[in-house]
Amino acid sequence: MDTTINPIYIVGGSKGGVGKSMVALALVDHLQRRDANIVLMETDTSNPDVMKAVHDEIECAAFDLDEADGWIGLVNFCDTHRDAVVIINTAARNQAGVARYGAMLASTLEELSRRLVVFWVINRQRDSLELLREFGTTFPNATTHVVRNGYFGTADKFTLYKDSNVRKSVEAKGKSLDFPDLADRVSDDLRSQRLSISKAAETLPIGQRAELLRWRALYDTMFAGVISDA
Ligand SMILES: Nc1ncnc2c1ncn2[C@@H]1O[C@H](COP(=O)(O)OP(=O)(O)OP(=O)(O)O)[C@@H](O)[C@H]1O
Ligand SMILES: [Mg+2]
Predict the structure, then answer these.
(1) Which of 17, 72, 105, 163 is such that its CA lies 20 to 30 A from the CA of 208?
(2) What is the domain extent for residue 56?
(3) Tens of pLDDT along 63-83?
C-alpha cells in the first residue's frame, strides 16, 4: 500500500457510548502534534461533540450520513481538501446510512487518491463485533484496527473479541489496539467544558493536567504503532 496517499480515518464503532468521540479527540490531538494538516468531519449531527471541541483549532464540516446528500458532501469535501488528512467522527446511528450509501465513498477512493483506515472502537459486548462485520462488507479495502477501550476493562477482559474470528481477520491487515482509560474527573471536564485535548492541557488544574498527560503519552504510543507517516 502506498503510504504517501493521504488517509481518511474513520472512527467508528456504531454502538452508542463506546468511546468513539474520545478516540476521535485523541486522534486529532495526536496528529496535531505531529504537525499533520488535518480536517474533521463530524457526522454526529445531533451531538457534534468532537466538532464543538476542536472547531477553533482545525477546519471542520458536518455531514448527515443518513442521507445521500451527506455522503455527496463528504466525498466532495475529501476532494477539495486533498492535501489534508481527514478524520471522520461517526455517530451511533450511522450504520444504516453506511450500509445504504457507504459504497459511494468506497467507489471514489481511487479517484480521490485516498486510503481508508478505520479505528473501530469496542466495548466487551458481542454486538460491537457483529456491527464491525457488517461495516467491513461496505469497505472491503479499508485497513481496520480494533480499539479495545480500556474504560471497559483491561485487554484480557475482552474475551469475546480475543476468541473471535473477527479478530483473526482484523489482524490479517490491521492491529488490535488498547486505548487507555482516563480518570473520570478529567473526562468529565473534557465533556462538560467541551475542551479539545490541547486546550485541556493548557487550562486544567495541575493535578488534572498530570493525569491528562499520562493518558496522552499512552495513546501517543498506541497511534504511533499504526500511523507511520502523518
Ligand atoms: N477511555 C476512556 N476514559 C475515560 N472515560 C471514557 C473513556 N471512553 C469513554 N469514556 C466515557 O464514556 C463517555 C462516552 O464516550 P464517548 O462520548 O466518547 O462515546 P461515543 O461512542 O462517542 O458515544 P456516542 O455514540 O453517544 O457518540 C465519555 O463521555 C466518557 O465519560
Ligand atoms: Mg460520539
Answers:
(1) 17
(2) 7-224
(3) 999 999 999 999 999 999 999
